[in-house]
Write a structure and sequence with these properties.
Helices cover about 70% and strands about 10% of the residues. With about 375 residues, it is α/β, with parallel strands linked by helices. It has two domains: about 90 residues, Transcription Regulator spoIIAA (2-Layer Sandwich), CATH 3.30.750.24; about 240 residues, no CATH class. Helix 1 links the parallel strand 2 and strand 3. The chain is elongated, with a radius of gyration of 35 Å. About 30% of the residues are buried.
Length: about 375
């Protein structure tokens, strides 16, 4: 007999599966439909008395059937096997992979301290890698400034439009609403002391010195920094970055520098627009809530606002732009393997960029306070 067959018959409360013929790799397709009809939840006896030949593939399928039925709550017994078949079944059973259980995470103080240590080590390693990447970008930027012909103007203009012109609506709306909120909240507090006129000072200093450029940088980090990571990460998955290197092109010059330069050029412009819209929103709310006319608002602005309040924001803008651009491109070049990596590193890029912007802003605030600016 060159074929194989399976017969299922009831035996009291259970069932008997009788296998016959050559149960080998080449005949498994003949018995597969019958094996799939094996009843579940009742005692099952697999009778191998009619098996003429059995190989490793057949033994594996019989053992898989037993495992499946036992997982469904059935009691399975294999009978009728000759010594050679029984030995083969035992050998295959010993070679089958064991199901791994779910290991519970360690608990207690020591594992928690170990986790904190691992986090600190990862943070230190990431900081060193970013510093190295910053050095590489600065070196490539210096070479490009010495040889301006290496700069890709088409890519630069394209990214200036993406990170600058296309971001004007959201930045303007954000700054306008921030100015409205500052004027409203400031008027509520200052009215208690009869000092409503000082709301102009509050709006001018807050918007020009801190909130205008800081919130603009945060929006740009979430909007453009994430876009940099996603775009470069997608190119990395499609192996376009490797293709560039094969063609002798430097990914830093082709992908990173146009994006970083575009941010450095456009973030001060966006910051200026945010300052103007913040003052407009604050002036409008002051007029509505306090009766401070636009003319009085402008006059008070000229009298109480130092040019350094505006200068402080513009000094910080290039540093914010450089950090956002470098981190966005760095995380994009780290992408490997799958789309899941793109999403994870894009999130990491936004978080790290916003964190770095706030840290830099704090450092500048302390510095300018110490030098009396």
């Amino acid at each position: 007999m060159n074929g194989a067959s399976v017969t299922i018959r009831r035996d009291g409360e259970g069932a008997v599966l009788e296998l016959a013929g050559r149960v080998v790799m080449g005949t498994l397709h003949l018995i597969e439909p019958g094996l799939r009809r094996a009843p579940s939840g009742v005692p099952v006896v697999i009778d191998l008395g009619g098996v003429a030949a059995l190989d490793t593939g057949g033994a594996w399928r019989i053992l898989e059937l037993r495992r499946t039925l036992e997982a469904e709550g059935a009691r399975v017994e294999i009978v009728g096997a000759d010594p050679h078949e029984a030995e083969l079944l035992d050998a295959v059973a010993r070679s089958l992979p064991r199901a791994e259980g779910i290991e519970e995470p360690p608990r207690g103080l020591v594992p928690w301290i170990a986790g904190v240590g691992e986090t600190i080590v990862d943070l230190g390693r990431t900081s060193i890698e970013i510093l190295g990447f910053i050095g590489l970008v600065v070196a490539r930027a210096g070479r490009t400034l010495v040889q301006p012909g290496r700069l890709r103007l088409t890519a630069l203009v394209h990214h200036m439009q993406e990170v600058g012109f296309n971001a004007v609506p959201i930045v303007s709306l954000m700054a306008f609403l921030i100015g409205v909120v500052l004027a409203f909240q400031g008027s509520v507090q200052l009215r208690q002391f009869g000092a409503e006129v000082f709301v102009v000072n509050l709006i001018a200093i807050s918007v020009l010195r801190e909130l205008g450029i800081l919130l603009t940088a945060i929006i740009v980090a979430g909007r453009s920094g994430s876009a940099f990571t996603a775009a470069i990460g997608s190119m990395k998955i499609r192996e376009e970055v490797d293709a560039m290197r094969t063609l002798g092109l430097d990914p830093i010059e082709v992908l990173v520098l146009p994006r970083v330069f575009a941010l450095i050029l456009m973030l001060p412009v966006l910051g200026f627009i945010a300052n103007v819209m913040g003052l407009v929103g604050g002036g409008l709310m002051s007029w509505i809530e306090l009766g401070v006319s636009p003319g009085m608002f402008v006059t008070r602005l000229y009298e109480t606002t130092d040019v350094w309040h505006l200068g402080v924001g513009f000094i910080k803008a290039p540093f914010f732009a450089f950090v956002i651009g470098v981190i966005g491109c760095y995380e994009g070049l780290k992408v490997e393997g799958s789309a899941e990596s793109v999403g994870r590193l894009t999130t990491a890029s936004v978080v790290l960029s916003i964190f770095s912007v706030i840290v830099i802003d704090a450092v500048f605030s302390v510095f300018f306070a110490e030098i009396g600016v």
